[in-house]
Amino acid sequence: MQNATRLNRTLEDPVSNSVNLNTELNLTIGSNITNLTDSEVIVVDFRQFYKYGFEFILYGYFMPVWASMSIIMYALMITVFIRYGMTSKTHICLIAIAICDSVSPIAPTSIWVYFFAIKKHYYYLPFEWCKIYHYTTEVIPQFFTYTSYFITIMMTVQRYIMVAHPFKAEKLCSKTVVYVMIVLCFLTSVSIRLVHLFHYKYSKTSVPGIDNANTTMQACTFSRPDWMPVSFYTYLGFLMTAQTIIVGVIPCTVLVVSELLMIKAINARSAKRETMTSKAKGQSQNAKNERRLTIATICITAVTLFYMVPVVIIQVIDVLVLMFDFDIGDYNNLRTAIVVLNVLYWMCIPSNFLITCCLSREFRRGIRSLFIKPETVQNTIISIVSLAKTQESVCNSETTESVKGNDSETVVDEQKI
């Protein structure tokens, strides 16, 4: 994006185009933008926003393929969970995350494919696409990515309670509580991003045409809406600061603390189990299943932190630029970093499927049963359900003995993985 009311600058073309872009362009903002300073108008220019050119390839060609793969993997994951009764509280969270992560890339990927792969449009954003492009790439996807992020935090805290405080878990982590928290996560995400639906005023500006520099087209511009009492970039600075704290710093801190506490709790529990003088075979298997589920949660949390920490760093830099005029050279380099982080985020999306597949024997059996011969499916289903019921019976017995002996055992509902 480029800021200007009348912009006279030389533009370098990162991709081939029929218009000679190494020329001086005179942009005149339409008459419907009045009483605004130069810094309050953003002319949407893809060549400046994605200055190196590889961003078009990532968004237009790589993302649709990767998003399709992610949707397929998560569809398999949800099918196995529901079909074979793997619907414990942690599995419910995983299903909700899978739905959000499957939906989030659909809208932006569709618009990127249309502009960058089909139309091969690497120029100014046409005015008629202003709202659609903004909503589908910056607003709607965040409803679901934020929800997935918050549910991951909830699942991590829940799993810690299950491991460290099993006798409180039945009340604090019941399925009703989980369902309510998932809905609250979505409503919180919508409320955080809702202001983004209204904080731009969409206007036109005349720019040289795509196919012929002697013609003109109406490009999209973003500017300060009439209701905003402060400078546009002052507002964006405060908004980014609040977003960084609420969505970045606080949640990442919670994740790190929960991760460390969960590792400590599982190590303490393992040490306590080793001191027990007698353990039945079923109890030992149940302990392994509980440990796998906790390890899976730890791995999912680690992946979340892997891509969220760089996002927080970029947001902090953005705040410094907007609020304190921090010099980073070319601001569009920061936008390129955001593109890379966006792609990194969507590359990490299938990690939940892969982690679950590696750590859950029942899940692997369920996946295989979707592709094996029909006459063997019933036997596989019986095997999975029988194993689940056996573990449930063992866990019930184990929990009863643990209460009598004041042993910290995990509640029954989380033993299926």
TrEMBL record:
One of its GO terms (molecular function) is G protein-coupled peptide receptor activity. Its main location: membrane. It is found in: Membrane. It comes from the Eukaryota. Residues 73-356 form the G-protein coupled receptors family 1 profile domain. InterPro entries: 7TM_GPCR_serpentine_rcpt_Srw, GPCR1-related_rcpt, GPCR_Rhodpsn_7TM. The chain crosses the membrane at residues 56-82, 94-117, 176-198, 232-263, 293-317, 337-359. The keyword Plastid does not apply. GO terms for cellular component: membrane. Keywords: Membrane, Transmembrane, Transmembrane helix. It holds the Pfam family 7TM_GPCR_Srw. Coiled coil: none annotated. PANTHER family: SEX PEPTIDE RECEPTOR. This is G-protein coupled receptors family 1 profile domain-containing protein. It comes from Mytilus edulis (Blue mussel).
